[in-house]
Amino acid sequence: MSKKLTISSIKKSKGNTPLVMITAYDALFSKLVSDSADMILVGDSLNMSFAGKSDTISATLEQMIYHTNAVCAGAPESFVICDMPFGTYVDAQSALLNSIQVFQQTQADCVKVEGGEDKAHIVKHLTDNGIAVCGHIGLLPQSVRSEGGYKVKGKTLEEKEQLLRDAKAIEEAGAFCMVIEGVKADVAKEVASSVSIPVIGIGAGVDVDGQVLVFSDMLGLFEEFTPKFVKKYMDGATLVRYAVGKYADEVSNREFPKEEHTY
């Protein structure tokens, strides 16, 4: 990526080359992905990938700010999105206060908020007060407990119509783009066509305006489970285990360090 994207350039990408979004949580990996990613999402999925939790719900604002600062340090020329964690936008005023904290304490370019029609008034309050917002509709990871699991959306006419209303409401509230997760591909295509802002898919087929994957999923580092929508671009866990095992063998056999590694 030669030049950092802006909200204007992201919005203008609608209907052109699909946007590449990658979720990362630290300076090391954000630097590695920054050349290829149009946007880096600091996702509350770090609660699962990094903290070993079963879902994202216990992620805190302090955690998100810490990791967003790390990502911004590693990829200063990237457009960075900070996930607002569960419980930080239950009403418009708390959402604004917490988003202001993110903006004041990090270099994040925007925040991401889960929800459709029901959260549109919150998104509008944020955008009216200078907070750039990326929406998130469809399967909502922060609602996993209330919904009894991760459930694909768009299977019924009622769900499709709700998704169309959700997308329109978030667009009208001032969001500059949105993520659509876990939605039947034909429905996601229709949703993307119904709004003028980019719709970034994850588990939502190819006919949207971009894609997002978590770096530890796509690199094969996270082994607990692999969602159907994830493609592993390398077997990272096997490579890491081999390298660490090789190091351990060389230490045990006094083969490391050699003279070139010694002062």
TrEMBL record:
Q: Where does the chain bind Mg(2+)?
A: D44, D83, E114
Give the residues annotated as active site: E181
SUPFAM superfamilies to which the protein is assigned, alphabetical: Phosphoenolpyruvate/pyruvate domain (SSF51621)
Q: Can you say where in the cell this protein is located?
A: Cytoplasm
UniProt enzyme class: transferase
In terms of InterPro entries, this protein maps to: Pantoate_hydroxy_MeTrfase, Pyrv/PenolPyrv_kinase-like_dom, Pyrv_kinase-like_dom_sf
One Pfam short name? Pantoate_transf
Residues bound to 3-methyl-2-oxobutanoate:
D44, S45, D83, K112
Keyword set, alphabetical order = Cytoplasm, Magnesium, Metal-binding, Pantothenate biosynthesis, Transferase
Reaction catalysed?
(6R)-5,10-methylene-5,6,7,8-tetrahydrofolate + 3-methyl-2-oxobutanoate + H2O = 2-dehydropantoate + (6S)-5,6,7,8-tetrahydrofolate
Task: Note how many cofactor molecules are bound and how.
Answer: Binds 1 Mg(2+) ion per subunit.
Please classify the protein's predominant subcellular localization into one broad category.
cytoplasm
GO cellular component: a single term? cytoplasm
Superkingdom classification of source: Bacteria
Q: In which pathway does it act?
A: Cofactor biosynthesis; (R)-pantothenate biosynthesis; (R)-pantoate from 3-methyl-2-oxobutanoate: step 1/2
GO BP terms, alphabetized: pantothenate biosynthetic process
Q: Which GO terms describe its molecular function?
A: 3-methyl-2-oxobutanoate hydroxymethyltransferase activity; magnesium ion binding
EC?
2.1.2.11
Family, according to the entry, reads as follows: Belongs to the PanB family.
Complex formation:
Homodecamer; pentamer of dimers.
Purpose of the protein: Catalyzes the reversible reaction in which hydroxymethyl group from 5,10-methylenetetrahydrofolate is transferred onto alpha-ketoisovalerate to form ketopantoate.
HAMAP family per the UniProt record, alphabetical: PanB
Q: What is this protein called?
A: 3-methyl-2-oxobutanoate hydroxymethyltransferase
